[in-house]
């Protein structure tokens, strides 16, 4: 298992390879298209994240002490952004997710290239994933 | 109709239009939200703060008098522009939302349980929520004038809804989400036949049409300067004199009183009764300058050009496979609301933003319209007279590029 910080480094490196933001957007769109399907049963009101202009669902499952996320959104760019977050956080122990820094978002310049509403949505998504981690963590204790 | 060279000259009046966004020339197509500001208006604001910034109506000194005169002159400009009898029928407000709230709040003293008020199905939230609050307070009942697939109000249904219990009707002159131009004069006449008062939200119409309030016969009309080349935070409420006299004041404070003792206060005459506190003096003066600027070009020419440009852009956009325009009324202008099959409006809007193209996405503060079409929202491109045919082409190419990337 790779550490969260290593995965974040990889993503930063990948984003550096692109020459402009249109190419980065193309990449995010591709990620969005290849995001694995979420079980329709998990697209519940409970899993809906507040603060996004498009509907976003994030679901978490615990397997062998690791948290696994699945997600979906009506908007492809949003799906692409969740795909990045899932790559970073999914398959990690809850404590590592709780402790993880999210500076990489600023380092790849994602936030400044999103509209304000989408940037709020991004913050809400990260917050929700961390909340899941806290919840599973406290369940175990 | 504006000619190409005229539009080029007009563009030079707007400094912001030479801005770069994300490395590309700004293409501003969010005019229905807020229009851009010409140098004439910017200069007026600078001049006010540089030469005669003062409180009005109360000073004995020179600056106060100069500011008061300029503020009242702006009121007179609006009076003349909207074909109104007396200057005090124009109340300065912070904008359309404020104007509607003044009327809705005042009406709570005049309505009783069982009275009916009618709202159109294509309203901005600011022309829905204050009336819902009014109904909660008074027990009056809110009924909805339905619209058809094209986004036109159903006048037969409207006629059937009107009866002797109907006390007020309110609808917009032009819909901000669909661009529909509603038949104001006809709808006013129908309402007056049953004795109902009419408030028309003119936020979207005032920037595009010559509006003569006396001819339209409305009881109340609202506008926001920031959609008419003026600054934000200033707008107007027009009212028929009888209504403005009948309506209780909205806020208490300075400026709106005639006499104050601890036993009783008597209210000032119009328009001050509704202008409590120090008004947005600079804003009011700049609003006047904005109206003068638009009139120097000619609102009839502006309106004709915008209608043609909107039609041109609509036709070009419809060549994109899967693109659907919401709001196809016979009489429409300046707004194109659309979606592309299978794509979320937010994705298209975000990619356009990367190309320096400013549009709006979402429900445009008109959720009932989105529910009507069963969509989460639309992409909205809204045009002004400083937009060009080349810009319309750039929008279409941008949408096509976004669609290619997303599909
Ligand atoms: C039709 C309509 N009504 C009301 C408003 C609200 O105007 P303001 O925000 O200036 O009060 C708007 C502006 O978005 C509008 O388009």
Automatic annotation (TrEMBL), chain A:
Bilayer-crossing regions: none
Pfam families tied to this protein: SufE (PF02657)
InterPro entries on file: Fe-S_metab-assoc_dom
Domain Fe-S metabolism associated: start-end pairs: 13-130
Domain of life: Bacteria
Family: Belongs to the SufE family.
PANTHER family: SUFE-LIKE PROTEIN 2, CHLOROPLASTIC, SULFUR ACCEPTOR PROTEIN CSDE
Protein name: Fe-S metabolism protein SufE
From TrEMBL, chain B:
Enzyme class at the top of the EC tree: transferase
PANTHER family noted in UniProt: CYSTEINE DESULFURASE (PTHR43586), CYSTEINE DESULFURASE 1, CHLOROPLASTIC (PTHR43586:SF8)
Annotated Aminotransferase class V domain residues: 28-395
UniProtKB keywords: Pyridoxal phosphate, Transferase
Function (record text): Catalyzes the removal of elemental sulfur and selenium atoms from L-cysteine, L-cystine, L-selenocysteine, and L-selenocystine to produce L-alanine.
Keyword Transferase listed: yes
Record-linked InterPro entries: Aminotrans_V_dom, Aminotrans_V_PyrdxlP_BS, Cys_dSase_SufS, Cysteine_dSase, PyrdxlP-dep_Trfase, PyrdxlP-dep_Trfase_major, PyrdxlP-dep_Trfase_small
UniProt protein name: Cysteine desulfurase
Cofactor: pyridoxal 5'-phosphate
Organism: Aureicoccus marinus
NCBIfam families: sufS
CDD domains for the chain: SufS_like (cd06453)
EC code(s) of this entry: 2.8.1.7
């Amino acid at each position: 298992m790779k550490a969260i910080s290593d995965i974040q480094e990889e993503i930063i490196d990948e984003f550096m390879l692109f020459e402009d933001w249109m190419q980065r957007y193309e990449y995010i769109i591709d990620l969005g298209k290849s995001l694995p399907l979420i079980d329709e049963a998990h697209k519940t009101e409970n899993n809906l994240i507040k603060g996004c202009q498009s509907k976003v669902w994030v679901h978490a499952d615990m397997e062998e002490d690791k948290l696994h996320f699945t997600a979906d959104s009506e908007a492809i760019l949003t799906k692409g952004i969740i795909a990045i977050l899932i790559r970073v956080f999914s398959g990690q122990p809850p404590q590592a997710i709780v402790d993880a820094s999210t500076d990489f978002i600023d380092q790849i310049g994602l936030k400044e290239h999103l509209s304000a509403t989408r940037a709020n949505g991004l913050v809400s998504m990260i917050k929700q994933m961390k909340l899941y981690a806290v919840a599973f963590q406290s369940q175990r204790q | 109709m504006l000619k190409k060279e005229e539009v080029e000259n007009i563009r030079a009046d707007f400094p912001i239009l030479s801005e770069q966004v994300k490395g590309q020339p700004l293409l501003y197509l969010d005019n229905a939200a807020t229009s851009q500001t010409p140098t004439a208006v910017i200069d007026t604001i600078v001049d006010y703060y540089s030469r005669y910034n003062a409180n009005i109506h109360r000073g004995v000194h020179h600056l106060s008098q100069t500011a008061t005169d300029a503020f009242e002159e702006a009121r007179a400009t609006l009076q003349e522009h909207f074909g109104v009898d007396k200057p005090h029928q124009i109340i300065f407000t912070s904008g359309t939302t404020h104007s509607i709230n003044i009327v809705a709040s005042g009406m709570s003293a005049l309505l009783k349980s069982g009275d009916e008020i009618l709202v159109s199905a294509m309203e901005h939230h600011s022309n829905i929520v204050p009336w819902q609050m009014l109904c909660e307070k008074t027990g009056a009942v809110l009924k909805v004038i339905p619209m058809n697939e094209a986004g036109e109000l159903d006048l037969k249904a409207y006629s059937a809804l009107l009866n002797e219990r109907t006390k007020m009707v309110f609808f917009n002159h032009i819909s901000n989400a669909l661009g529909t131009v509603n038949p104001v004069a006809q709808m006013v006449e129908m309402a007056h036949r049953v004795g109902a008062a009419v408030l028309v939200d003119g936020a979207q119409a005032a920037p595009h049409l010559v509006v003569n309030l006396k001819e339209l016969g409305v009881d109340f009309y609202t506008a926001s300067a920031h959609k008419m080349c003026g600054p934000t935070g200033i707008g107007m409420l027009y009212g028929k004199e009888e209504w403005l006299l009948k309506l209780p004041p909205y806020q208490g404070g300075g400026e709106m009183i005639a006499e104050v003792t601890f036993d009783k206060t008597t209210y000032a005459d119009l328009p001050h009764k509704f202008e409590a506190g120090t008004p947005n003096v600079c804003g009011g003066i700049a609003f006047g300058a904005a109206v003068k600027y638009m009139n120097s070009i000619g609102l009839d020419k502006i309106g004709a050009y915008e209608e043609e440009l909107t039609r041109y852009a609509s036709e070009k956009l419809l060549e994109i496979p899967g693109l659907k325009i919401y709001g196809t009324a016979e009489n429409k202008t300046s707004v194109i609301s659309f979606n592309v099959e299978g794509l979320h409006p937010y994705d298209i809007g975000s990619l356009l933003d990367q190309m320096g193209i400013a549009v709006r996405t979402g429900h445009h503060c008109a959720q009932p319209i989105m529910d009507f079409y069963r969509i989460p929202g639309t992409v909205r491109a809204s045009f002004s007279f400083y937009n060009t045919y080349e810009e319309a082409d750039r929008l279409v190419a941008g949408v096509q590029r976004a669609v290619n990337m997303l599909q």
